[in-house]
Protein: Fumarylacetoacetase
Organism: Paracoccus thiocyanatus
Amino acid sequence: MSEYLFPPAPPAALPVSGQEARFPVNRIFCVGRNYAAHAAEMGAEVDRDAPFYFLKSAHAVRQSGATLPYPPGTRDLHHEIELVVAIGAPAFRLAPARAMDAVWGYGVGLDMTRRDLQARAKDKRQPWDLAKDFEGAAVFSALTPARDFTPAAQPIHLRVNGTMRQQAGVAEMVWSIPELIADLSRYYHLGPGDLVMTGTPAGVGPVQPGDRLAGGVEGLEPVELTIGPAQ
């Protein structure tokens, strides 16, 4: 039996709608600029040649209903609501026509972003890790099995303190779910436990301590988050 110098961190896992079993989280792949209107509001253009990605670590995972302390190192924390795809089977070099075979289910997520750090990284052509990958930066609803949900033109939205901030339809994504899975499988051996955050619509903006966020995709469990005091 292996011995550790200190106890390993417990695995990140998400609840599943209607089940006691939980979904263990492995990697979190995030799609950038997958809604044209959001790309425009950020002063960027959609790359029509191929999607692009950044990753979040499992330590970023929080469940819906959590309180997230306003994170250190930023004065401009932003919300981004997203449809999430949960992978449940090995996927490597798949064609788009076969990509959905790898999908286990779906959820709703919040990609929390230290926007000032992201802007600084962009200016210096540096990675986005400090902006995107921190404790509590990935907040997820309970997951819904694929047999109970088919992504089509469902509305996606986010309210902050009851005021609508983001509102669109998931059909507005530039790159479809099969295209994203097929493309990622060119570079990674995707497998059970991987999550794909499929991008955010326009309307992203700042949040402050005390704010309450509530968002969803029609047909899926909602995601909720409270912003706590600064650390």
Q: What stands out?
A: The chain is about 15% helix and 35% strand. The chain has one domain: 13-230.
